[in-house]
Structures are given as C-alpha cells and as structure tokens.
Design goal:
Number of helices: 2
Strand content: under 5%
Distance between the termini: 24 Å
Number of strands: 0
Structural class: mainly alpha
Largest sheet: none
Length: 141
Amino acid sequence: MAFDPFKNYNVSDPYGVTPQQRLARSLAGSTHGSKRAKRNYEVDRYDLGKSYKKQVPQLLSNYAQRGMEVSGVKNLGLTEAAGAYSRQMAERGAMLDDALMQIAMDRLGAYGDYFGTRLEDTLDSNVERAATAAKLREALS
C-alpha cells in the first residue's frame, strides 16, 4: 500500500478540495434548504389563512341570501370549510417535517462522510507508521 497523502482531496472541485471544505459546503447547502423549506411553509400558511378569511364572509353571505343563516346547513358549510383549511395546513406541516427530516439525514450523511474520512486517514497513518517501525526494527537487527 503506497502512502498517498492526497487521496481524500478532490482537485477537480475547487469548492470541495479538502474533506473539511466538502463538509462545510454540504452543511451550508442543508442550512439553505432548511431556510427555504421553512419560508415556503410560512408563505403557504399565510396564503391559506388569507383565503380562508376571505372564504368565510362569502359563505355567510351566500347562506344569508338563501335565507339559511340560522340553519344547520350554514354550520355544516362553515365546518367543512374549516376542516378543509385544517387539512391543508396539516398537509403543509407534514411536508415541512418531511423536508426537515431529509435535510437532517443529509447532514448526518455529510458528518458521516467527513468523520469516516478522518478515521480512514488515522488508520492509514497508523498502518504506515507500523510498516515504517517494522522496517526500522528489521534494519536495526
């Protein structure tokens, strides 16, 4: 096994030459992805809230025009509108949770790659030192 101090370096990638730079780039990308997912969730939440607030008065006026403002049908319609809003918000929340979980798994993978590279470097250097020590002992005896 020949000693190759540059085997974990990627000279074809100027932004990820060393393992530390690759880890930093990966973590920066996951942070950006996390912020983007949270921002999209907040935009969806705002838009859904606004549409629901516009929908309720329209429903009430529709039932009032038909003379059903005191009926159970109006309450049923409002309940269905609120249920649809809640369901959409729950779906958006689940999508955010899934995205954040995937980002967390990507981060764990990046850390695993980095520390795996560090462990491999340590083990390789120990093997090289042991081989050198064996050669020195052989030469001295």
